[in-house]
Amino acid sequence: MEGVQARRRGGSGVGDHTGGPGGDDAAADFVRAVYAEHGSALLAFITRMTGDRAQAEDVLQETLVRAWRHSGRLGADGRPLRPWLFTVASRIVIDEHRARRARPAEVGAETLEQLPASNELDRAMESWQVAEAFRALSPEHRAALVETYYLGRSVAEAAATLGIPPGTVKSRVYYGLRALKLALEERGWAT
């Protein structure tokens, strides 16, 4: 670090450079010196932050580009350069993380292949809609429909299981189906 600072104060012309794309050899020399002195520690730090060596190298490169752009101001006041570099690198990592979270995840072809076919989706959606409407029924209507439609029992078997007369089972099934249809229509799922 002292080497970079000494070059900055030593009148190499770097302190007068404004940085940026039209930079001169002094700015390039400054960035080379920064990389030689801080590159390995900075790369290790960024790799620990990201957990990805390739991403860490990209962040290191962007950090050095920013150092090059600000080479005219860096180190001219005698403050250490290392904290500035680590702060810039940290902020780049944070910004990239936020940008990734803000973007919707890309869906690849293999993900699309794993999706169920349209008719399977339709069946799943219909099942969910019926289950939602089914929960809106009274327990008596629900029990009569479960016994007759879902379990496939006859009216007599359902009556024996539920402990009610067969006529009551018929009535509950009839009114339960009407209530189910109405519940589906109220939700906009049936016509």
TrEMBL record:
Residues 129-180 form the RNA polymerase sigma factor 70 region 4 type domain. Residues 11-23 have a biased composition (Gly residues). GO terms for biological process: DNA-templated transcription initiation; response to stress. Residues 35-101 form the RNA polymerase sigma-70 region domain. Residues 1-23 are annotated as: Disordered. Keywords: DNA-binding, Sigma factor, Transcription, Transcription regulation. PROSITE patterns: SIGMA70_ECF (PS01063). InterPro entries: RNA_pol_sigma-70-like (IPR039425), RNA_pol_sigma-70_dom (IPR014284), RNA_pol_sigma70_ECF_CS (IPR000838), RNA_pol_sigma70_r2 (IPR007627), RNA_pol_sigma70_r4_t2 (IPR013249), RNA_pol_sigma_r2 (IPR013325), RNA_pol_sigma_r3/r4-like (IPR013324), WH-like_DNA-bd_sf (IPR036388). GO terms for molecular function: DNA binding; sigma factor activity. Pfam families: Sigma70_r2 (PF04542), Sigma70_r4_2 (PF08281). Residues 1-10 have a biased composition (Basic residues). Belongs to the sigma-70 factor family. ECF subfamily. NCBIfam families: PRK09645.1 (NF007227), sigma70-ECF (TIGR02937). This is RNA polymerase sigma factor.
